[in-house]
Amino acid sequence: MAERIAPQGKWAALARASAAGLKVFPLYGVAVLPGTPTPFHIFEPRYKALVKDALAGDRVVAVPALLHKADAQQLRPPLKPICGAGFIESEQEYPDGRYDIIVRGLARVRLVEELPPGAMYREWRAEILEERWPPAGAAALASQLEALRQLVYELSTRLPSESGAPQLAEAVAQMTDASAVVDLVGAAVVSDPESRQKVLEELDVARRLEYVVEEVAGVVLVLSRGKNPRV
Fold first, then answer.
1. How confident is the model at residue 29 (pLDDT cuts 50, 70, 90)?
2. pLDDT of 199-219, one tens digit each?
3. What is the mean pLDDT of residues 45-63?
4. Which of 40-44, 89-93, 163-167 is the least confident region?
5. Which residues of 79-99 are buried (b: 16+ CB within 10 A; e: fewer)?
6. pLDDT band for position 69 (50/70/90)?
7. What average pLDDT is seen over the chain?
8. pLDDT of residue 189
């Protein structure tokens, strides 16, 4: 499963941060999936401080979803406990302290305990979550994985190259790790916030694969009817 293996240093940093306190950047409708890059524009003072501290340290952050969109301006709004954690892969700092960053997902985590306030941003102890595979292993998912590849290929024939669909089809054709393929396709194709959160929260690889197959099949069906889904 080489596609999913991050350098040991990043995994070690995530393990340490999860035990000591992950810096969390809560947003509504965002799900950072393992192995996938997500861009963010950072402009609020508390999150500029978070990014500055992360860049000076282990570069590890977690991005939990807000439980309610209306809570976005609260200082400590309720969060969905399962979220993506990753590392800041690249950054661009502006003179006024804003940042453009790309967070590369490393793992699914469960937020367990919020630390007492000690910074402008929130920190949580977290548990790194393990995936569940079928008893027969990855071989049991081969037919469903091939079905997903075929759907992504069909998607690529119905969308222009600037959509990224042809590049996605080429990437998944070369990947062998079912979990990595599902997360990559889910990040690229599943646009509804609740559906993306469902992909994130599903630890059973077989069920996650089945769900993403259904989602991509739905997009292909919409395209076949001459409509233009958001992908």
1. confident
2. 999 999 999 999 999 999 999
3. 95
4. 163-167
5. bbbbbbbbbbeebeeeeeeeb
6. confident
7. 91
8. 95
Q: Rounded to an integer, what distance in angstroms lies between the CA atom of residue 106 and that of residue 10?
A: 8
For residues 141-173, b (16+ Cβ closer than 10 Å) or e, as one string?
Answer: beebbeebbebbbbbbeebeeeeebbebbebbe
Q: Which residue type does 222 have?
A: V
What number of other Cβ atoms are within 10 A of residue 225's Cβ? 7
pLDDT at 152 over 70: yes
User: Which pLDDT value is given to residue 228?
Assistant: 59
Task: Specify the residue for token string 């892969």.
Answer: 89
**3-state class (DSSP) for residue 29:** coil
Q: Domains (ranges, CATH) in the chain?
A: 2-128 (2.30.130.40), 137-224 (no CATH)
Distance CA 64, CA 125 (A): 13
What is the rounded CA–CA span in Å between residue 119 and residue 172? 41
What span, in angstroms and rounded, lies between the C-alpha atoms of 113 and 124?
A: 6
Q: How far apart are CA 105 and CA 187, in angstroms?
A: 11
Element (H, E) at 183: helix 178-189
Q: Any residues with CB less than 8 A from the CB of 112 and at least 6 apart, and which? A: 81, 124, 125, 126, 127
Nearest by Cα to 106 from 210, 20, 50, 183 = 183
Q: What count of Cα atoms within 13 Å lies in the side-chain half-sphere of residue 134?
A: 15
Model pTM? 0.88
